[in-house]
Amino acid sequence: MKIVITGGGTGGHVFPALEIAKYAINNNDNVIYIGSEYGIEKELCSRHNIPIHTLPSKPFYSLKTKRGIIARLLFVKAYTMAKIKLAEIKPDAVFSTGGYSSAPVVFAAKKLKIPYFIHEQNTVPGRANLFFMNHAAAVFTVFSSTERYLRERHFAPKNIIRTGIPLRSSLVENSTHEPKTIPENNAINILVTGGSQGAVAINDVILELASLLKDNPNYQFKWTHLTGIKNYENVLHTRDDFKLKEPYYNILPFADDKAMASLLKNNHLIICRSGAGTLTDSALYGIPSITIPYKYAIGNHQYYNALEFEEMGITKILEQDKLTPNTLLMKINEWINDENQYTAASNILLNWNVEDTVQKVYSNIEHLLNNSTHENKSRMETLQQLLRIR
Question: Tens of pLDDT along 289-332?
C-alpha cells in the first residue's frame, strides 16, 4: 500500500499519526508524511526516519487580523503544493489526524478523488476534520459520544468506527492492565500535568495545596508535577519558596515516553487537562483522575471529553473558574475516601481503553480500500456486460 500520512501542528495530532506511519513502514508500505513546516512534525519525522514533505500552512485565525489573512493566503499555496505532490505520489489513501497542517492535504485528496481516512480524537471534532467528514472513506473515533455528535448535526460519513487513539508504543508495552487500589494510610502518589505546554492555573494551585498539606499527617501524598518546559523555572522557584522538597514534591519540565510510562504505572491519581491523549493514557493504566478542562479549547471539546468520563464515573470534573486549593482537595478526598468507587473506576478505565488501536486503524484502512477496489471492479464488469448486451 502507498499511503500519505498527515496531521499536525501540535503533538496531540502528530504522535498518533507517527504511530500509524511507523506501523505501515514496518509492514513494508510506501509511506510519506505531509505536514507543516511550522509544526513539530518535521523534527519528529526526522527522529523516526519517516520521509516528510512540508507545506507553508499555518493555523487559521479571524479574517479581521493580519495573521488570519496571511494564514488563508498560505492555505491556498499549501493546497496547490499538496495537490501537485499527491498527483505525483499517486497514493492509495491519505490518513489524517487533523490539525491545521492536514487541511490542505485532505482538501487536495478530495479534489483528486483519493480515498481519505480521518482520525478524530475528541468528542467535538476539530474544524479541519469536521469540514471533510462527509466524504471520508471512514472516520475513526476515540470517544463513544463523537458518533452521536455527528449524527445529531446530520454529518453522514460512510463509516464511523471507534478504534481508540494510536498511543506511543512504549506506553502500551509497559502497561500492566491491572486495576489500581488505594494504598494503606492514603499514602498515594499524585501525578499532575497540564499537557505538553503546561498550565499556569493548575501549577499555581497545586503548589499552594501541597504547601498547605506538607505537615498534615492525614495526607501522606507524594506529588510529581510535570510543569511544561516554559513554566519549569517559575515552578522550581515557587517550590523552593514554599520549602517543598523531594521526595514529597518532585518536579519535571516534561516526561519522555519511558519516564511517562513509569509515572503512569506508579501513580494512583492524575490531575490533568482533558485532552484525548491524556485521558487515554489514564485509561490505559487505569488511573482515576480529576480533570480541569481548558475552557478555551475549540468547541469546548476538553469539557465534553471529560464529561463522557465523568458520566462513566472515572473522572471528577473541576472547572478552572472554580479551581482553588480547597475545591481540589475536596475532589481528591472524594476519591481516596471511597475505595470501592476508586477500584471500580480503575476497572472501568481499563475496559474503556481500546487495545491494539494502531492495528485496528491500519487493518480498517486496508479492508475498506480492498472492498472499494472490489466494488469498483464489480461496477466496471457490470457496465461492460450492459454494453455487450446493447
Answer: 999 999 888 889 999 999 999 999 999 999 999 999 999 999 99
Judge contact between 146 and 125, C-beta under 8 A.
yes
Mark whether 28 and 129 lie in a shared domain. yes
What residues of the chain score a pLDDT lower than 70?
Answer: 61-63, 196-197, 373-390
Same domain, 63 and 106: yes
Helix and strand numbers (H, E) in the chain are 15, 13
Which CATH number characterizes residue 261's domain? 3.40.50.2000
Query: pTM value?
Result: 0.89
96 and 180 inside one domain: no
- Cβ–Cβ under 8 Å, residues 19 and 168: yes
Domain match, 268 and 160 both: no
The pLDDT tens digits of the residues spanning 38-70 come to: 889 999 999 999 999 999 998 876 667 888 788
Structural domain harbouring 104: 2-164+357-389
SS3 203: helix
Helix 66-89 and helix 103-111: axis angle, to 10°?
A: 50
Find where cell 505520489 sits: 89
Structurally, the chain folds into a number of domains equal to 2
Calculate the CA 129 to chain-centre distance.
14
Same domain, 66 and 83: yes
Give the length of the chain.
390
pLDDT at position 53 is: 97
Cell numbers that stand for 258 in this block: 519511558
Beta bridge partners of 119: 140
| H-type alpha helices, 197-253 | 200-213, 232-241
Whether residues 229 and 290 share a domain: the answer is yes
Q: Counting beta carbons within 10 angstroms of the beta carbon of residue 334, is it exposed (0 to 12), middle (13 to 18) or buried (19 or more)?
A: middle
Say if residue 193 is in the same domain as residue 271: yes
